[in-house]
Structure prediction request, 207 residues.
Amino acid sequence: MKTLIISYLPGKDYSNTKKLFDHIMAKFENKEYKHIDLLEDKPEFFDNDSLMAYYQRNYQGKEISEELKKSVSKMDAFANQVKEADIIIMAYPMHNFGIPGIVKTWFDNIMQKGMAFDYGPTGPFGMYKGKKSLTVYTSGGSYTPDKVSINYPEWNTLELLAKIEFAFMGFEKAEVIGATTSNPKMKEENMDTAKAKIDAVLNEWYS
Ligand SMILES: Cc1cc2nc3c(=O)[nH]c(=O)nc-3n(C[C@H](O)[C@H](O)[C@H](O)COP(=O)(O)O)c2cc1C
Prediction:
């Protein structure tokens, strides 16, 4: 079972989410995995070259120039890591009611037509059948993650988008586990509850 772990923890040692991440990493001490730290290994925004390369290669099936190949080489490296993995584990905080921009950019890099999804007679379909993902995050506030709207507390776009991204790619499972941190009285309890949920998922997947 090949595991790819993606983290974006800009708070480093002060990060709340890192506590959930460390809890997960402790379980991988004697297991094989690949870890990508998005603070070190940064995904790239589409620019004109890379978008043209993507259209020409992935949508029009054209052979692209060496120069255009270079413009998507970083994206392709991230996309290949996902293709090779069976399980993806992600850890990052909530920023502005959603997925931090750099993590969204990682999704934009790996979500490639002809690789992660394609179109059939009935519309788009995901190509990563059988893969599983676990996303862990912390947020200051507490929300109603299953429903998103303009009305508070229905403001958590993170959980929904994390699930949609993996569902669109055909993943068999997309678990998302969060803990709220702003209430000091509840913080430890929330973190412990999240850790117990993480244990339940990982025990099932790696048993
Ligand atoms: C730039 C920034 C934006 C944030 N936006 C939100 C937000 O929209 N909603 C929320 O509940 N908490 C928000 N928070 C609070 C964090 O999500 C929360 O403190 C979290 O536990 C931080 O995780 P970390 O310590 O791993 O960085 C934000 C924090 C930062 C630094």
Notes: The first strand starts at residue 3 and ends at 7. The chain has one domain: 3-43+81-205.
